[in-house]
Amino acid sequence: MKKEDDLYQNYLQILREELVPAMGCTEPIAIAYCAAKARDVLGAYPDRVKVEVSGNIIKNVKSVIVPNTDGRKGIETSVAIGIAGGDATKALEVIANVTEVAKISMALFLENNPIEVLPLESEEQLDIIITEYVGENQYAKVRIAGFHTNIVQIEKDGEVLYQAGEVVANNVSLTDRSLLDVAHIFEFAESVDIKDVHEILDRQIDCNMAIAEEGIRNNYGANVGSVLLNAFGNDVRTRAKAMAAAGSDARMSGCEMPVVINSGSGNQGMTASIPVIVYARELGVTQEKLYRALVLSNLNTIHQKTGIGRMSAYCGAISAGCGAGTGIAYLLGGDYEAVIHTLVNAVAIVSGIVCDGAKPSCAAKIETAVDAGILGYYMYQEGQEFQGGDGLVSKGVEKTIQNISRLGKIGMKETDKEIIKIMTNC
């Protein structure tokens, strides 16, 4: 693929859009961002707040600790810290620089100011509307929909200041992901000028490995990463799974370190990158080889997630673990055939694991997904594969990905509703 090709530039732009830093689980951070933006529009601290959120936001905020809040959880906490200490210009790092004074203000706001939380019926799986009020007549309303920083409406005192039209439904502000396919992803990974991607990938390597090491060193969540190392040893396969899980251990428990996300998720960003980095270091490959493997893993993850959607009852870490399998296959000398068989084998093993919100058990799901990615490659090495017509597997990698997309986006819609009902005791 040539640098001047439109497809080359599109793939590069997709990486730029997706591999961005975020501090904390992205759903509570999106709420904090929305709240901080509404405060800025209002021009004052509000007396009261109304929060309307889609079911998947409720699911992913309920059980995860919000960074810089002294261990607090929940939608109300996310709103209050966004108002008291958020910097809306920082987007997904909106609460990265919260002061001790802001934490006190957050606590006082939670104690003294009503925050009404309402379920929002929406066609968008990710939908947040925050309305902040001063007195009886002054208010500011901000809506985020489609993806975590996608502000689609701003309103103040009855006047619409910004309206994004159909961008909510179609996410047209992002580069067209339908241009992705595994064959062209592999070609791009092999031909991309490293100067075009090294800054993006260096940030992913530095941030994601730092939080993984923090998760191993200290006590977070269920300590899945440490359990893996203690129970199964320190070989590269165990280490790859343990380090990815440890990053999630830390992040789900409020660790105040940034991660570079993938498809709107820090867990997916860590799962798509950390196992690949661990294998690259074990194998002693060149930095260029690592970059190309990360391009392959990240884009294959994005490709799988595109058809499923940003949020679903289908666990996104599964897509990322299968993506990581393709990057590891490449590091181990695999060609295009090895990559596509790895991906198909992996998704056949773990497709259908549900997302029941952000929380410590995400780390264990990450371990399972990465293990499937690695097994998928070694099956191919042994001349073994799951055949087209076996369950969700069809002949051809793209058809199989389409099947998984259909399962995650359409087939699991009712599953998602039941999960949310169970989690909210409805």
Provide keyphrases for this structure.
single chain, 426 residues, alpha+beta, 60s Ribosomal Protein L30, Chain: A, 2-methylcitrate dehydratase PrpD, 6-stranded mixed sheet, two-stranded antiparallel sheet, 17 helices, 8 strands, globular
Structure characterization notes:
Helix 4 (75-85) packs across helix 5 (100-112), helix 8 crosses helix 10 (236-252) and helix 11 runs antiparallel to helix 12 (287-308). This protein has helices at residues 6-18, 26-42, 55-61, 75-85, 100-112, 167-170, 182-191, 194-217, 224-232, 236-252, 266-283, 287-308, 316-331, 336-350, 362-381, 397-411, 413-424; strands spanning 21-23, 48-53, 115-119, 127-134, 138-145, 151-156, 159-163, 258-260. It has 426 residues and is an alpha+beta fold. It has 17 helices and eight strands. It has two domains: 22-170, 60s Ribosomal Protein L30, Chain: A (2-Layer Sandwich), CATH 3.30.1330; 180-424, 2-methylcitrate dehydratase PrpD (Orthogonal Bundle).
In a few lines, what is going on in this structure?
57% of the residues lie in helices and 10% in strands. With 426 residues, the chain is of the alpha+beta class.
CATH topology of the largest domain: 2-methylcitrate dehydratase PrpD
**Major beta sheet summary:** 6 strands, mixed
Number of H/I helices: 17
Q: State the CATH architecture of the largest domain.
A: Orthogonal Bundle
Order of helical and strand elements:
HEHEHHHEEEEEHHHHHEHHHHHHH
Distance between the termini: 52 Å
Number of domains: 2
The computed structural class is alpha+beta
